[in-house]
């Protein structure tokens, strides 16, 4: 008969996710011996090894351990929902909401939401997980996040999607580039410049497809996994690039780079909230989502999108 606690399962999940007993102990602020004891107890009850332990190289799950970790994560996800529901019985939004957000969108998008949620639900705690488009989906599917902020085109068919705003692609160019003075550009014009690409899973193929759909080939000069470094390279005159969500600190005519809408960039992707479709989110998560929808109705996300001038046409 298996005999383990919720705390022990959390210890084991952290060790499996981080691939290290020491890292798990550090994240959870407990001793390494507590992590080791939890693993030993679970393995003893299961009758098989969950991890292969290699001195100085951490741990890695066995095939059975990989499957067991998936079950543990799903159970912990359900346990968090149960705890949130129990805490909100009195009608107060308490507990923790774990949100995953596409990394390049997070700095521009999250401050508005977190400020509003903190003011509306002062007893609510938020945990933020950032990652690539693919990783954000994994966070949701693996039960590490209660909801995710990403693009509809990169969602899983099993997900529910709540749209928040369209995010048309725009060109980001050095301030002294002639494109900056024109007020609008085309994919063909961008293809004549050296290109700084965002080298993240999902985003890389998306931006490449924009050129492929028009029979164009970008002149790749530099690549980076950071949107901040991307903007720095563009500001330094190393090339131009394409992004979707405008940074909060961008000031037209004052920033070290210019943002210019693209006439023929194709359909604008929709950015919004993803949740797992086969289960109803707990009340605390639903309250969080309703707060985001209210912000949308107030137009709080309009300044994140770059639209073509009203008189512009292809």
Task: Provide a quick synopsis of the model.
The protein is 41% helix and 22% strand. It has 314 residues and is of the alpha/beta class.
List the helices and strands and how they pair.
Elements: H1 6-18, H2 21-28, H3 32-46, E1 51-54, E2 58-61, H4 63-87, E3 95-102, H5 106-120, E4 124-131, H6 133-141, E5 147-151, E6 159-166, E7 170-174, H7 178-182, H8 187-190, E8 194-198, H9 203-212, E9 219-224, H10 227-235, E10 241-243, E11 257-261, E12 270-276, H11 283-297
Parallel strand pairs: 3-4, 3-5, 8-9
Antiparallel strand pairs: 1-2, 5-12, 6-12, 7-10, 7-11
Overview of this protein structure:
The chain is α/β, with parallel strands linked by helices. It has helices at 6-18, 21-28, 32-46, 63-87, 106-120, 133-141, 178-182, 187-190, 203-212, 227-235, 283-297; strands at residues 51-54, 58-61, 95-102, 124-131, 147-151, 159-166, 170-174, 194-198, 219-224, 241-243, 257-261, 270-276. The chain folds into three domains: 6-76, Arc Repressor Mutant, subunit A (Orthogonal Bundle); 92-166 and 270-304, Periplasmic binding protein-like II (D-Maltodextrin-Binding Protein, domain 2, 3-Layer(aba) Sandwich); 170-261, Periplasmic binding protein-like II (D-Maltodextrin-Binding Protein, domain 2), CATH 3.40.190.10. The protein is built from eleven helices and twelve strands. Helix 5 (106-120) links the parallel strand 3 and strand 4 (124-131). Helix 1 (6-18) crosses helix 4 (63-87), helix 2 packs across helix 3 and helix 5 packs across helix 11. The radius of gyration is 23 Å and the shape is globular. The N and C termini lie far apart (69 Å).
């Amino acid at each position: 008969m298996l005999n383990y606690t919720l705390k022990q399962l959390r210890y084991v999940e952290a060790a499996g996710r981080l691939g290290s007993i020491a890292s798990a102990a550090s994240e959870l602020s407990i001793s390494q011996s507590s992590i080791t004891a939890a693993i030993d107890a679970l393995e003893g009850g299961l009758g098989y090894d969950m991890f292969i332990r290699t001195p100085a190289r951490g741990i890695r799950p066995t095939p059975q351990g990989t499957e067991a970790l998936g079950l543990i994560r799903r159970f912990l996800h359900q346990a968090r929902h149960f705890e949130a529901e129990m805490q909100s019985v009195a009608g107060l939004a308490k507990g923790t909401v774990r949100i995953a957000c596409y990394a390049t969108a997070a700095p521009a998008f999250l401050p508005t939401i977190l400020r509003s949620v903190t003011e509306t639900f002062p007893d609510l705690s938020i945990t933020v997980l950032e990652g690539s488009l693919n990783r954000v989906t994994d966070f949701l599917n693996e039960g590490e996040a209660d909801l995710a902020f990403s693009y509809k085109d990169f969602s899983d068919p099993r997900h529910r999607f709540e749209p928040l705003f369209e995010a048309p692609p725009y060109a980001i160019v050095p301030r002294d580039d002639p494109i900056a003075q024109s007020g609008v550009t085309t994919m063909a014009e961008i293809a004549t410049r050296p290109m700084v690409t965002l080298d993240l899973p999902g985003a890389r193929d998306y931006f490449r497809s924009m050129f492929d759909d028009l029979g164009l080939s970008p002149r790749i000069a530099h690549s980076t996994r950071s949107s901040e470094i991307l903007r720095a390279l563009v500001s330094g005159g190393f090339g131009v690039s394409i992004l979707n969500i405008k940074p909060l600190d961008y000031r037209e005519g004052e920033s070290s780079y210019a943002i210019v809408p693209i006439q023929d960039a194709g359909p604008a992707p929709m950015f919004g909230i993803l949740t797992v479709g086969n289960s109803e989110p707990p009340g605390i998560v639903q309250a969080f989502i309703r707060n985001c929808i209210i912000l949308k109705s107030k137009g709080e996300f309009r300044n994140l999108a770059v639209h073509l001038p009203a008189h512009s046409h292809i």
